[in-house]
């Protein structure tokens, strides 16, 4: 039986609009969703009529992070690294639009995009520490682009924060009312100019990927294999507090 794609695609005046469409699991980063998104990015990158990519979502979540119900969860960090690298080296800018929740590894996907906007309905949280984990791989683009001092609070505590704080710390570029102007700017620029300009802004992130991705994938695997993580994930799926919550 053929299954529906988890990423819908259409083109709007030179902008390839990619919509994450797996609302049943809050657009979690399953191997299937990552594969569909990677294929859509490849297609947009190779299409000479496409000037830029707009990544958005169906449902109330942009991305919930790792698919914790997946049997292939331990492959997730490396798949996310590959996806973030693909976004960084794509010869066309990728703009994210968020109108809902972003959690855990979803923040890595968001931060890997070149430009991002969010509505007032958006909310953000690095939930890993509350599960006995850490945002090891997601930290690669986050700490390359956001204010490290501001990010430390949210990464360590797992607290939820809103769009104004996400913009203040540099995790999100601007509020949603800036989107039309951003897309107009992309449509006005030359393809060569966009590619060369993007390369300047992604260089530091790519350097960090090359230097640290393997070690952080190993750290993620170590944490996922721990008893704390097993209990944290069970507690989340069973909708209860883990034993360490005071």
Beta percentage is 15-25%
By helix and strand content, what is the structural category? alpha/beta
CATH class: Alpha Beta
- How many domains make up the 3D coordinates? 1
Helix content: 40-55%
> Strand-and-helix sequence, N→C?
EEHEEHEEHEEHHEHEHHH
CATH topology: 2-enoyl-CoA Hydratase, Chain A, domain 1
Instruction: Characterize the biggest β-sheet.
Output: 6 strands, mixed
User: How many beta strands in the DSSP annotation?
Assistant: 10
Overall average residue pLDDT: 95
Family: Belongs to the enoyl-CoA hydratase/isomerase family.
Pfam families: ECH_1
Protein name: Enoyl-CoA hydratase family protein
InterPro entries: ClpP/crotonase-like_dom_sf, Enoyl-CoA_hydra/iso, Enoyl-CoA_hydra_C, Enoyl-CoA_Hydratase/Isomerase
Question: Can you walk through the features of this model?
Answer:
The chain has 246 residues and is an alpha/beta fold. It has one domain (1-176, 190-246): 2-enoyl-CoA Hydratase, Chain A, domain 1. It is 47% helix and 17% strand. The protein is built from nine helices and ten strands. The strands form two sheets. The chain has a six-stranded mixed beta sheet with strand order 1-2-3-5-7-10, sandwiched between helices. The longest helix is centred in the C-terminal third of the chain and has 34 residues, at 191-224. The model has no long low-confidence stretch (mean pLDDT 95). Belongs to the enoyl-CoA hydratase/isomerase family. It holds the Pfam family ECH_1. This is Enoyl-CoA hydratase family protein. InterPro entries: ClpP/crotonase-like_dom_sf (IPR029045), Enoyl-CoA_hydra/iso (IPR001753), Enoyl-CoA_hydra_C (IPR014748), Enoyl-CoA_Hydratase/Isomerase (IPR051683).
């Amino acid at each position: 039986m053929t299954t529906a794609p988890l990423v819908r695609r259409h083109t709007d005046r030179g902008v390839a609009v990619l919509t994450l469409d797996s609302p049943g699991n809050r657009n979690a980063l399953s191997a299937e969703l990552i594969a569909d998104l990677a294929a859509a990015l490849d297609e947009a990158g190779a299409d000479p009529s496409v000037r830029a990519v707009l990544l958005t979502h169906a449902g109330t979540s942009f991305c919930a992070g790792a698919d914790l119900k997946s049997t292939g969860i331990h492959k997730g960090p490396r798949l996310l690294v590959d996806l973030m690298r693909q976004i960084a080296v794509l010869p066309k800018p990728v703009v994210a639009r968020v109108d809902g929740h972003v959690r855990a590894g979803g923040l890595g996907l968001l931060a890997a995009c070149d430009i991002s906007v969010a509505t007032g309905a958006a909310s953000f949280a690095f939930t890993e520490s509350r599960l006995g984990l850490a945002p090891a791989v997601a930290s690669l683009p986050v700490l390359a682009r956001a204010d490290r001092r501001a990010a430390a609070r949210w990464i360590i505590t797992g607290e939820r924060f809103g769009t104004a704080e996400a913009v203040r710390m540099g995790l999100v570029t601007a509020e949603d009312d800036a989107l039309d102007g951003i897309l107009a700017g992309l449509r006005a620029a030359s393809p060569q100019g966009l590619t060369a300009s993007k390369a300047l802004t992604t260089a530091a992130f790519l350097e960090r990927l090359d230097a640290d991705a393997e070690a952080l994938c190993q750290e993620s695997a170590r944490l996922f294999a721990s008893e704390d993580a097993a209990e944290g994930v069970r507690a989340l799926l069973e909708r209860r507090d883990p034993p360490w919550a005071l």
